[in-house]
């Protein structure tokens, strides 16, 4: 089965073709980072309009580059949620309409299921069951995964998602949008012993997360440092604060992952979503899983953040199981992973 995947849930237009026998045939991405940079965050209306401009030319480019004909496709998968409603509607409308005109089925894909299954595109995919840690700009979730569609939520963020905390703290540090990768780069120069940030919610049982306090802690630390060292702060102080923040997020995620792996007695951990590109996080998670006698799995770096390949893969699993969605175009800006069983 050959499936075109379309991702437009936020600020990346991603398209890809996945073939169940030959694997990923092609993928293309258009990032809107430059468009939103001057506003310091994603502007939903600008995002929708840019998806409208880019999605069809990107599909045309993908087909031309990989020599794929529409007639060779068996189905189309589009991200139907969670995400920005206007942005989602663009991909859903284009995906649903192309499928109708080409006489093939279309299936709505949950964006986080896409992230969760992204490591399946690698040469060494994780065997089921596994625990998944989804860390993106909008979500921080621990999920027990029995198989495709069988997801049990073990823990969730009560306030800011890990990526959101990275982005907001990066802004406080004066770093350009999107701040997560910039903050990680600055933290590499930082002294890990100078400041210590709290590890929220690790001193009590449970697998939920709360990262909004860390942003406030960063703000207070910055203000105190400015009183002592002046404004603007020396670059080394900014790097030291970035390092303390990153260490706190990474260790908190590591502690909760270890707890989830022990509680479920499943020694396989998948890390996915934008923050799983973080090198420090990967290092700490690998060390921890090694000590636990287990193994960690990640998507390749370019498929940690939003992309069409993960949507094509997830859609292919659903279409292969005989699932498809009706002709109406609907999206779900909020959508629970636990409702995806089939
Ligand atoms: O999965 P994703 O592309 O979009 C959502 O579905 O949200 O994740 C984007 C998030 C952003 O918050 C970004 O700052 C963060 O992932 N991110 C990182 C890194 N690369 C991306 N955070 C920390 N370290 C990184 N290297
Ligand atoms: Zn995402």
What does this 3D model show about the protein?
With 342 residues, this protein is an alpha/beta fold. It has ten helices and ten strands. The protein is globular and about 65 Å long. The protein binds 5'-O-[(R)-(carboxyoxy)(hydroxy)phosphoryl]adenosine and zinc ion. Zinc ion is lined by residues 111, 115, 136, 273, 306. 5'-O-[(R)-(carboxyoxy)(hydroxy)phosphoryl]adenosine binds next to α5 and α6.
- Neighbour order of strands in the largest sheet: 3-2-1-4-5
Counted beta strands:
10
The SS-based structural class is alpha/beta
Low-confidence stretches: none
Number of helices, counting only DSSP H or I runs of 4 residues or more: 10
Calculate the mean pLDDT score and round it: 97
Provide the list of bound ligands, each named once.
Answer: 5'-O-[(R)-(carboxyoxy)(hydroxy)phosphoryl]adenosine, zinc ion
Approximate shape:
globular
* CA-atom Rg in angstroms: 20 Å
The sequence of SSEs as H and E is EEEHHEHEHEEEHHHHEHEH
Share of β-strand residues: 15-25%
Fraction in helix:
40-55%
Q: Give the distance, in angstroms, between the N- and C-terminal Cα atoms.
A: 19 Å
* Major beta-sheet overview: 5 strands, mixed
């Amino acid at each position: 089965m050959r499936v075109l995947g379309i991702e437009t849930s936020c600020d990346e237009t991603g398209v890809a073709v996945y073939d169940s026998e030959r694997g990923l045939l092609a993928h293309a991405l258009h990032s809107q980072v430059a468009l939103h940079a001057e506003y310091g965050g994603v502007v939903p209306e600008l995002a929708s309009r840019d998806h409208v401009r880019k999605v069809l030319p990107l599909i045309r480019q993908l087909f031309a580059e990989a020599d794929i004909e529409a007639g060779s496709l068996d189905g189309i998968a589009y991200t139907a949620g969670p995400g920005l409603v206007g942005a989602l509607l663009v991909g859903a409308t284009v995906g649903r309409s192309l499928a109708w005109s080409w006489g093939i089925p279309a299936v709505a894909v949950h964006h986080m299921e896409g992230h969760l299954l992204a490591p399946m595109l690698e040469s060494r995919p994780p065997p089921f069951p596994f625990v998944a840690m989804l860390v993106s700009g909008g979500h921080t979730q621990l999920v027990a995964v029995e198989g495709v569609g069988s997801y049990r939520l073990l823990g969730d963020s009560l306030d800011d998602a890990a990526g959101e905390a990275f982005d907001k703290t990066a802004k406080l540090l004066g770093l350009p949008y999107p701040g997560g990768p910039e903050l990680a780069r600055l933290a590499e120069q930082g002294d890990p012993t100078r400041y210590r940030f709290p590890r929220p919610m690790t001193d009590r049982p449970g697998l939920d997360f709360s990262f909004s306090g860390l942003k406030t802690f960063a703000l207070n630390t910055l203000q105190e440092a400015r009183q002592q060292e002046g404004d603007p702060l020396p670059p080394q102080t900014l790097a030291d604060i970035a390092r303390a923040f990153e260490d706190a997020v990474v260790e908190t995620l590591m502690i909760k992952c270890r707890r989830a792996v022990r509680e479920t007695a499943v020694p396989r951990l998948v890390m996915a979503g934008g923050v799983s590109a973080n090198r420090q996080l990967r290092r700490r998670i690998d060390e921890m899983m090694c000590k636990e006698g287990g193994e960690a799995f990640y998507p390749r770096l370019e498929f940690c953040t939003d992309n069409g390949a993960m949507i094509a893969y997830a859609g292919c699993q659903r279409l292969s199981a005989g699932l498809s969605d009706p002709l109406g175009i609907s999206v779900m800006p909020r959508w629970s992973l636990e409702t995806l069983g089939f």
